[in-house]
Specification:
The chain has helices at about 5-10, 45-75, 80-110, 115-155; strands spanning about 160-170, 175-180, 190-195, 200-205, 210-215, 220-230, 235-245, 255-260, 270-275, 285-295, 300-305, 315-320. By secondary structure, it is of the alpha+beta class. It has a domain at about 220-310: Thrombin, subunit H. Strand 7 and strand 8 (about 255-260) form a beta hairpin. It is rod-shaped. It starts with 6 loop residues before the first helix and ends with a strand.
């Protein structure tokens, strides 16, 4: 009987379902979910390593602290700290610049509510200061005007009665003022009205508390005047002509009439009241000669006069000569 062959036994497949271990007795292959392989660290061993590393870091930190303190005490610079600063400086500068650029951009594109409120406050303050400045200018102008009026009243040779202008009463035929003085203050028809600068007109109607003044600029007004000039060498004032001044209407120049051809008058001569007739006192300033007009016949001439007294619309008060 022939013996059994070994070849068939070797060709028999492995059917146990387990992968043979490459080394005897090791069933912990990671591929099959086994235990820790050769060379793997246990939890106890990992903990000891962490403690050793922490201790080393603490030791190095203490050593660096001692070294840093000694260098500082000796007045020397820590090379390690300088190195860190040198390395970090470019990054810090770049970050700072970028931050400023971003802030500037957003401030330009989207102005905040704070800026809007600040602008509004500045605008309100600017408006308030303008109004206050205007009020102070008006107050200063009024103080100057009143000071001038008081100085004039103190120096006047005749007693003056101050009166407030209530209204300007222009009409087609007359140009008059209504003032706040009347008969109970001693005002009467014919009383002279003037300002600190010059002659203004005459009272034509009077009540107990008010009076109506016909202005010198009215077309129906006529006052006797003298034309004078000061000699530049001697300083003596001489009369150059005797005439009458008439009104030219609202806003117009006065006109000196009844001048003779031989009357020596010039532009710039002063015109004052003559006092002839006894109503208007002599010497009240009227105006300045601005233009000389010769008639076509050549025998008579006239002169345009700029009045000294301001326009009625700019007046606040007048003085009455009783």
């Amino acid at each position: 009987m022939p013996p059994p062959t070994r070849r068939s036994e070797r060709a028999k497949p492995h059917t146990s379902g387990r992968v043979p271990s490459s080394r005897g007795g090791n069933n912990g292959s990671p591929l099959l979910g086994g235990g820790v392989t050769r060379g793997g660290a246990t939890p106890q061993r990992s903990g000891r390593t962490a403690i050793i590393a922490l201790g080393a870091l603490v030791f190095v930190g203490v050593l660096y602290g001692i070294l840093h303190n000694r260098l500082a005490s000796a007045g020397r610079t820590d090379p390690a700290l300088n190195g860190v600063r040198t390395v970090a400086s470019p990054f810090a500068v770049g970050t700072s610049r970028a931050s400023r650029s971003v802030k500037t951009f957003w401030d330009y594109v989207l102005p905040g509510k704070r800026d809007t409120d600040t602008i509004a406050q500045l605008q309100n303050e600017n408006t308030r200061l303008k109004l206050e400045n205007e009020r102070l200018r008006n107050a200063d102008a009024e103080a100057t005007r009143l000071r001038k009026a008081l100085q004039f009243a103190d120096k006047s040779p005749k007693p003056l009665l101050p009166a407030e202008i209530i209204a300007l009463l222009p009409s087609a035929n007359a140009e008059t003022l209504l003032v706040s003085r009347g008969t109970k203050h001693g005002v009467k028809v014919g009383s002279v009205a003037r300002t600190a600068d010059g002659l203004l007109g005459q009272v034509t109607e009077v009540g107990s508390d008010t009076a109506q003044v016909l202005l010198l600029s009215d077309l129906s007004s006529g006052v006797g005047v003298l034309v004078q000039r000061r000699d530049p060498k001697t300083g003596i004032v001489k009369d150059r002509a005797v005439a009458v001044v008439r009104g030219g209407g609202r806003g117009q120049q006065l006109t000196v009439v009844y001048l003779r051809r031989e009357d020596d008058i010039r532009i710039g001569d002063t015109v004052i009241s003559s006092g002839f007739g006894g109503i208007i006192p002599a010497g009240v300033p009227v105006g300045t000669v601005a233009e000389i007009v010769t008639e076509k016949t050549g025998f008579v001439k006239s002169a345009r006069v700029d009045p000294f007294a301001p326009l009625p619309g700019t007046l606040r008060e007048v003085f009455l000569i009783r």
